C-alpha cells in the first residue's frame, strides 16, 4: 500500500470537519484548533505567528527549505448548506480542503525528511472581505494590512524559505488539475458620494442627489470600458453598499465599493486613475462631492515554471496530459501573488468539486480528487525537491524579485 493511502479516512475526516466549521478571516479560531490538535497528535509542534490566527508547523532542519501554504478562511455565501449563522461564512472557495491536504501531507513527510526543512504556513484572511472589521483590527494594531499573507510577508515570516508551493480548488469541469495559471492584481476602492438631503416631495430642488451622482458615475465607467485593452485583461466590478438614507429624502450619501483588476500592473494603475477621475467629475457635475478611499489589494501572480515542471510529472502519475489545464488566464486574485513577487512560488489547481467557487452550490463530489490525489502530488514534489538541492539552488539563482521590500512597503502605503 502506498504510504499516502494508509490513513485516507483520517484525511477525509479532517477535511469534513474543517468544511463544516467555516470562519471569516482573522476569526478562524476553530479551524486553527482543529488543525493544531491534528498536527500535535502526530507529534508535530505548531508555532503561533500572531495576526490573531496565523501559525506554522515545521519538520526537519537545514537546507533546502521548502515552504507550503494553506489558507484558513471562508467567504460569506448566502444559502450555502454549511454557512454559519453569524456572518454567512462558508468554505465555498475550498480553503478547508487546502488545509486538510497540506496538514495530512506534512504528517506523511515527517518520517522521511532526512535532510532539509519543510514549513507549512497556515495563513488567515486570503479572501478580501469583511473589510470594515479588518480596518478596525488595523486601528487596534492587531493587523497592519487587510490580507493575511501581506501581514506575514511584511513581518518577515517567509524570508528563510527557498520556494513555496500552494494549491487551490477548481470549479467543476473537464480538467483534473491546472498549472501555470495567472492571478490578477487588484485595488479596492470605496467611493462615497456626498450631496444634500431635503424632502424628496416638497423641496427636491433644494437638495443635491448623491444617488444621481453615483448613477452618472456608473454610466461613465461603463463608457470607459471601450478603452480597456484586451491584452490587459481588465475587470471593473462593484456594488452599491449604501443607496440613500430614506425614500422620503433626497439621498445625501451613497457608497460604492469596487475592485479594479488587471494582469498588467501598469494598466491597473491607469484604470484606477480613470475611475477616480470619473467619480470626481461626475460628482462635481451635479454639485456633489466624491471621497475616494483606495486600499491596495493583491499583486499579480508570477508562477515558477521550474517548480511546476516537477509538479506536472507528479500529476501525470494520476491523469492524462489532456486532463491538465495549462496556462489558464484567470482573473481571480490572491495574496499568494504578493508572495510570488519575492520568492519562487506556484499555485496549482485540483478538482473533485461540484458547483462554482464562491457559490452556494460548491460541494465536494469526489474525495479522492479533492483530497488524496493533490496530497500525493504535493508529497512527491516536496520529496523530489528535498532530494535535489541543486535543482532548488538553480531555481533560487534564476529567480529575480520584481520589487524590493522598500518598494513593496511604499506600494502598500
CATH superfamily membership of the largest domain, which one? Zn peptidases
What structural class results from the helix and strand content? alpha/beta
Share in β-strands? 15-25%
Predict the CATH topology of the largest domain.
Aminopeptidase
Strand arrangement in the largest pleated sheet: 1-2-6-3-7-14-8-13
Q: What's the gyration radius in Å?
A: 23 Å
What count of domains describes the coordinates? 2
Mean pLDDT: 96
Helix content: 25-40%
Order of H and E elements? HHEEEEEHEHHEEEHEEHEHEHEEEHHH
Largest sheet: 8 strands, mixed
What's the CATH architecture of the largest domain?
3-Layer(aba) Sandwich
Shape: elongated
Low-confidence runs: none
Would you count the extended β strands for me? 16
Number of helical stretches of at least 4 residues: 12
Q: Please write the CATH class name of the largest domain.
A: Alpha Beta
Q: How far is it from the N-terminal to the C-terminal residue, by CA?
A: 53 Å
Amino acid at each position: 500500500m502506498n504510504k499516502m493511502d494508509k490513513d485516507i479516512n483520517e484525511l477525509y475526516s479532517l477535511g469534513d470537519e474543517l468544511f463544516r466549521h467555516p470562519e471569516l478571516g482573522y476569526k478562524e479560531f476553530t479551524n486553527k484548533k482543529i488543525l493544531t490538535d491534528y498536527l500535535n497528535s502526530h507529534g508535530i509542534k505548531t508555532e503561533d505567528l500572531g495576526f490573531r490566527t496565523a501559525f506554522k508547523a515545521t519538520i526537519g532542519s537545514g537546507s533546502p527549505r521548502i515552504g507550503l501554504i494553506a489558507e484558513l478562511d471562508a467567504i460569506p455565501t448566502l444559502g450555502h448548506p454549511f454557512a454559519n449563522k453569524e456572518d454567512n461564512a462558508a468554505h465555498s472557495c475550498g480553503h478547508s480542503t487546502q488545509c486538510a491536504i497540506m496538514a495530512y501531507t506534512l504528517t506523511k513527510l515527517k518520517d522521511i525528511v532526512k535532510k532539509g526543512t519543510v514549513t507549512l504556513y497556515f495563513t488567515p484572511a486570503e479572501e478580501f472581505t469583511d473589510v470594515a472589521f479588518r480596518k478596525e483590527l488595523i486601528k487596534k494594531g492587531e493587523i497592519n494590512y487587510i490580507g493575511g499573507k501581506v501581514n506575514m510577508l511584511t513581518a518577515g515570516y517567509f524570508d528563510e524559505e527557498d520556494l513555496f508551493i500552494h494549491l487551490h480548488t477548481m470549479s467543476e469541469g473537464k480538467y483534473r488539475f491546472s498549472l501555470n495559471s495567472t492571478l490578477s492584481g487588484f485595488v479596492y476602492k470605496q467611493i462615497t458620494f456626498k450631496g444634500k438631503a431635503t424632502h424628496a416631495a416638497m423641496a427636491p430642488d433644494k437638495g443635491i442627489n448623491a444617488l444621481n451622482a453615483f448613477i452618472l458615475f456608473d454610466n461613465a465607467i461603463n463608457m470607459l470600458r471601450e478603452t480597456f485593452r484586451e491584452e490587459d485583461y481588465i475587470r471593473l466590478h462593484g456594488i452599491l453598499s449604501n443607496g440613500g438614507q430614506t425614500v422620503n429624502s433626497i439621498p445625501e450619501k451613497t457608497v460604492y465599493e469596487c475592485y479594479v483588476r488587471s494582469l498588467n500592473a501598469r494598466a491597473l494603475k491607469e484604470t484606477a486613475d480613470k475611475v477616480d477621475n470619473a467619480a470626481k467629475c461626475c460628482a462635481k457635475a451635479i454639485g456633489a462631492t466624491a471621497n475616494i478611499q483606495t486600499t491596495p489589494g493583491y499583486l499579480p501572480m508570477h508562477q515558477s515554471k521550474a517548480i511546476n515542471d516537477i509538479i506536472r510529472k507528479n500529476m501525470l502519475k494520476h491523469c492524462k496530459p489532456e486532463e491538465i489545464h495549462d496556462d489558464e488566464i484567470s482573473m481571480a486574485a490572491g495574496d499568494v501573488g504578493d508572495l510570488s513577487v519575492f520568492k519562487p512560488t506556484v499555485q496549482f489547481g485540483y478538482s473533485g468539486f461540484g458547483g462554482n467557487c464562491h457559490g452556494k452550490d460548491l460541494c465536494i463530489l469526489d474525495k479522492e480528487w479533492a483530497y488524496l490525489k493533490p496530497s500525493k502530488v504535493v508529497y512527491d514534489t516536496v520529496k523530489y525537491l528535498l532530494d535535489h538541492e541543486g535543482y532548488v539552488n538553480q531555481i533560487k539563482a534564476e529567480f529575480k524579485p520584481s520589487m524590493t521590500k522598500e518598494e513593496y512597503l511604499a506600494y502598500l502605503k
